[in-house]
Structure formats: C-alpha cells, structure tokens
Design goal:
about 200 residues; mainly beta; 15-stranded mixed beta sheet; 1 helix; 15 strands; globular; Glycolipid-binding domain-containing protein
C-alpha cells in the first residue's frame, strides 16, 4: 500500500499551494486513494477519497475543500452533488463525461487507469468534469492522452516501470507531461512526489 506525500504548487509561477498526504492500494473491486491536503503553513485544507472499479470508472468520489463538499460517481456519465459550506444548499450535476479530474494526483492515476493506453496506441480523447479549487466548482474539460513511452528502471525493490504521458487540453492546445509509476505520480505540472514509504502498487 503506497503511502507518501506530494507537494503542490501553481504550475505557472510555482507558488507553493500545500501538500497532499496520501495512501492508495488496489483492492478486490478496483483501486482506492485517500488523502488529506494541508496549506503551506500546515493547516487542514481538504481531502480526497476516490474509489475506482476494475475498469477505472469512478464508483465513489468524496472531496472536501474550503468547507465545500463533492460526492460523485459514474452514473449516466458522471453525476455529483455539491454542498455549500453552510450545508443548507446542495446542487446536483450530471454530464456525459468519462470521469472526474482536479488538482489531486489521484485523478491522473484514475484517468490513466481508465484509458489503459499502450506505447504506440493512438492519442485518445477523454471528457472529464474538473472540480476547481478553492470551492470545487465543476467545469467540463476535454483532453487528449498519449502514452509516449514505458521504461523499466532498476531500484532496490526490483524493476520499476515508469510511463510517460503527454496530456493536451483541447480547448487551449496546452500540452504537458505526466510521469506515472504504478499508482503513484512521480511528476506532473504542479505536482512533485516528495516522500514515498513503500513502492508503487502494480496493477494486474
């Protein structure tokens, strides 16, 4: 069960945004990721609890930030309920999309797991609902993903396969690279892996 810590920063000006302390593991029904997010000063800022089925679809998402809350799942596309800080008002949303995304590294793993690309396979388009900080506002985004290469690296715990993805935002044309090993993000825009207590899990 990988357990560790990511540092989060603004991908444009590198302003520190905080840290995400996580643990994740494959299970009998798929994969689960749980994290707590802290501010640069160490205060609690939110949390993510994401569970995927064997096909990489989100069967449960619960996210918290600035007292806002999201509960969602893959139902008729993706469906979610967003609750305001007072807990009085809740709004429901539904979009014909494949999955969710956001600033947490969990969503990069989830999208890669959903697409299951292989080196040389064609670029794949995916529609996602992004929950944007700091109030988890929903926004539909279209991306294309391509697996550029998979390389095995020798480590003290045996070979580690690192996948390099190219992710493109179809509305702006902006491209960036994501490096993933098993169920851990090694590097991505705004994300750095700072500490990892156990090796990444290998998906069957």
């Amino acid at each position: 069960m990988p357990r560790g810590r990511y540092s989060l920063h603004d991908p444009h000006d590198h302003t520190p945004l905080g840290e995400e302390h996580f643990q994740c593991a494959p299970g009998p029904s798929g994969w689960r990721y749980v994290s707590r997010i802290t501010t640069p000063s160490g205060d609690h800022a939110g949390s993510v609890d994401l569970a995927l089925d064997d096909l990489g679809r989100p069967i449960r998402l619960e996210a918290h930030a600035a007292n806002w809350q999201i509960r969602g799942a893959a139902i008729d596309g993706v469906t979610w309920v967003r609750t305001d800080p007072t807990g009085v008002h809740a709004t429901e949303g539904n979009v014909r999309a494949h999955a969710f995304t956001g600033t947490s590294p969990a969503f990069l793993i989830a999208t890669a797991r959903l697409l299951r690309l292989t080196p040389g396979s064609p670029t794949t388009r995916v529609r996602l609902v992004a929950f944007t900080d700091p109030v988890l506002a929903p926004r539909t985004v279209d991306q294309s993903w391509a697996l550029l290469k998979s390389e095995a690296h020798t480590t003290d715990n045996g070979p580690l396969t690192v996948d390099e993805y190219q992710v493109s935002a179809l509305d702006t044309g902006e491209q960036h690279t994501v490096h993933i090993a098993g169920d851990v993000v090694l590097a991505a825009p705004g994300i750095e892996l700072e500490d990892l207590e156990t090796p990444p899990s290998v998906f069957p």
